[in-house]
Amino acid sequence: MAVERTEELVLNMGPQHPSMHGVFRMVVHLEGEVVTKIDPKIGYLHRGIEKLAESRTYPQFIPYTDRLDYLSSPHNNLAYVLAVEKLMGVEIPERAEYLRVIFAELARIASHQVMIGSTALDIAGWTAWSYCFRDRERILDMYEMTAGSRLTVNNMRIGGISNDPPPGFWDALKSFLDDIPEMIEEYYGIFFGNEITMGRMKSVGILPKELAENLSITGPVIRSSGVNYDVRKADPYGIYDRFDFDVPVLHGCDSYDRTLIRLLEIKESAKIIKQAMRDIPEGPVMAKIPKVIKPPVGEVYHRVENPKGELGFYIVSDGTTKPARLHIKSPTFVNMQMLPLISLGWKIQDVIAIFATIDAVLGEVDK
Amino acid sequence: MENKELLRKRVDELASKVNGEVEEILGMLVLKVKGPYALEALTTAKSFTDIPCDFLHDLTAVDKIDHFEVVYQLTSWKGPQKLRIKAVVDRENPVIDSATRLWQGANYMEREAYDMFGIQFKGHPNLKRIYLWDDFEGYPLRKDYVTETAEQRSVVFKLPAE
Questions:
Q1: Per the CB < 8 Å rule, is A42 touching B104?
Q2: Between chains, do A234 and B108 touch, taking CB under 8 Å as contact?
Q3: For A54-67, what is each residue's pLDDT tens digit?
Q4: DSSP per residue over B4-47, as a string?
Q5: Which pTM does this prediction carry?
Q6: Does domain A48-366 have CATH number 1.10.645.10?
Q7: Where are the domains of chain A?
């Protein structure tokens, strides 16, 4: 019997494509519907943030970090200000530490909600998307109350946090936390427990543990490949060592687990925020720091657990008001390397599901 | 900190083998070696007994005017040990061995360093620009890269003075 063969098809997906989460392009080589090669092309959103940093003073650079991973901007602020504070040796007030944790964990919840919603949307689950975005809106309202902006929050400062949240914030936060168990049940019912979701995502895009470690993958992606590694536990920063929380680890290594782990992390983040709300002391939110920030000559590397992986800032100071070199280690830029390796042999629609589970934000990938 | 002393001992041994200097900056051990020894230092650090630094966390370069430094941030999947390895690379002829044979994950990070500094990573499977387009001239993060002035950048058409 003659075997019918099709010609290899080269398909350009993106940069303007509904499932590409921004301006990402991949050149997909197809044999029928089966992927034989993927060539990711990045850089459409490259703004040269590292070069810009060299001509900005240290406080001036904080708003730029919002534009990295714009779905969790307080986290990027946190990573940067912690790096500068480590370089300068600044101690910040207790209340500011707690507020930082609250905002960082709210950002994690918001980012994971977008991830679950957009993954659902990519595999045509429209309803889950609207549920996630409805609930995320409440976090954005809390941002707005405190900082005035909803996406690029920019409320961390070198030496503390910009301002105390208004009284209405705490009521909103409390009612949001009370609703989290119900939200999780809803997401599970509408998306994770769905038969079509399971069919589309279970056992799709296996990322083995050894490959993940070799590729320097971080964040929820590696934790769903059976590696228990979270910077909040491995190398605690801020006051994370005071809280009692678990790090969810799954062993499925597939797209389904990479999505489900986000749901479990929302639960843990809520636990941290509850403890922080209980223990938060009264007091100032800004330390006394000099008007002109001039860190001593030296260099520092600081990393935090961003919702998407490990975000690191490497700052080299030459003793002036501007950094001599600032490097951003963005998690999704490194995690993106798994896409061409683990998508081979899958159908084109599976590649969409695999790409969605990396949870790439192109602002961060392209810097 | 027992772990830290053990790491210090291992790094000192490694430094004498590869003619490196060890210093401590803000609590972090830093090993500075010459470019040709970088791969040997990384290979040894990856397989330190008891305290392997087997997680390549970050790879970047720094322009130090008279030379480049390629900076590797190493940590471990198990344990708190952290090590920074700096490899000094000649500015005129910036060549260094690629770390992709140790960590596949170095692939994109080295492409980024090539894109921004023009450092040639020997043995890299696909050393091409990653952010900028292929026929871009110059390496933007070098200190001698000339950025265009605001006037050059401006796209606003100006009427000639009457």
A1: no
A2: no
A3: 888 988 899 999 88
A4: HHHHHHHHHHHHHHTT-EEEEETTEEEEEEEGGGHHHHHHHHHT
A5: 0.89
A6: yes
A7: 48-366
